[in-house]
Fold this protein.
Amino acid sequence: MDCNLVFEDEIHLNILKKILAETQPHVTINRIHQSGSRFYIGKKLFAFNRASLIKPHIVLADLDRIPCVRILKQKWITFEQSERLFFQVAVREGEAWLLADHKSMSTFLGISLNLLRKEVRQVENIYDPKLLLVNLARRSKRRQIRDGLVPKGSAKIGDLHNTLLSEYIQKQWEIEQARIHSSSLNRFLDKLQVFFTSLERR
Amino acid sequence: MFISRIILKNWKNFKELNIDLKHRVIIVGPNASGKSNLLDAIRFLRDITKSGGGLQKAVELHGGVSKIRCLSARTHSDIVIGIDLSEDNTNKLLWKYELCFNQVGGGVREFRPRVKYEKVYSEKKGIEILTRPNPDDIKDEVLLEYTHLQQPTTNSDFREIADFLNGIQYLHIIPYLVKNSRQIVLPESEDYFGKNFIERMTKVNSNTRKSFLKKIESALQYAVPQFRNLRIENDDMGIPHLQVSYKHWRGQDAKQWEDQFSDGTLRLMGLLWALLDGKQPVLLEEPELSLHSAIVRKLPEIIAQTQKKRTGIRQVFLSTHSYELLDNHSIQAEEVVLLKPTHEGTEAKLSISDEEIKTLLETGMTIAEAALPATRPPEIDKLHQLSLAFGDG
């Protein structure tokens, strides 16, 4: 079976690819719609809902500053959602799901597990996961991490943010560990399983 | 008249292609999918008809039969190019032309391209008015080294096709070549690669040239507000050059020659000139290059405006990677040719024939939003993960 992906950024893409490869190995990716912003996904969700009648669509967006998932869904899903459209939200950003695998993340960042655990007790409560990641990277023992993840000037992320984190996702990030500490990831994985099981049944 | 259908077999990337075309044809696809090769097929027909052209010359200009032939061609290695020509306003079919060729020779004999068949169908007469090989060709096979399309003595019944193809223009301005035209020796080419761009401008009669330059100048006013009074001036050697007055902090404007223009300015001038000059199809290779995204967004409408000629509608072919160019609700899915590389060569289809794209367009998306994802290379996100840094690997 093949499906289309709709998401905001490269971190999302790598997360989705890893999740699909590990939990739904029979699924292949057909087309990729990278939007660059959450607002775009919100505006076009109706279109992807229609297109999902032709190919199943998996949509992942960040919650960012919106108070809660329910409010975001109320605002965006103003139509009858197709059973072939899978839509879930990362609380508050994809990076939070990455931080949720404490052990791998501390190894990757080159900081102690204790320090990471102290800062990342509840990933769902982190207001700005990208900023936290940057602040942790500042304290890294690894020069490559400090150089690549800490932003320069007015930039919000480091100049190798996507490169380094994509590699982390592919080689180090463990989904089963991360879902323990992130309820939005856990919900994503449970619902994805249900989604594909019901698609196959039909 | 316009090219309403193109048929290719074993042409470069394309093992097989058969698509309907509109007056605006926009070719999209990943790198190396064959966007230029599709334009190249049309240029090939043009090269057959131009003076000093012909089949042998056209094949030579396009790299020889072995470079033209599709890598996926196996038992059937003949190369076919066919076109339908239709009437501008009614879209009624007028002509069909189809050429099939291959090469003979080998061993001590030089390889020579040779016509396998050549056919012309006239809708007016309702019959095929040319079918080769004919008895003469069978008697003297050397005749098959020439198309009937290229020879005035043999194309009199379908001269209209030859004249039409001969008028096709191609634009791919390389600013470096325009600026250094005296130092660089290029193989002969009638195309707007740059070297002969200004020379082409001088060949137009002076009133038309003045009117074109005025139009370009008025468009440039918005894109490059410092520019005024665009003209062609000869240097001491009598060689024509582009010149503008350039407004700056001093009271009097400064003069600038084309070698001082920015790449974007030159490309925009070339693009506007190519759109204004001529009635037959114009082929544009990535017209967005070097241009500000705000200008690129205007290109579809600039093109639409210049297509309407007193004599009919001028057909425009363009290849593009530009999101901005395609992010325009006026572009129809029927105009967009999607290329997709496969192991058996590149597949080409109109984006209207893709159900997903069609559905997304119905909900109000633009071609950029709906169709570009279909051209994205599947593993492109891994590009930056290569060991590009010094010392790695």
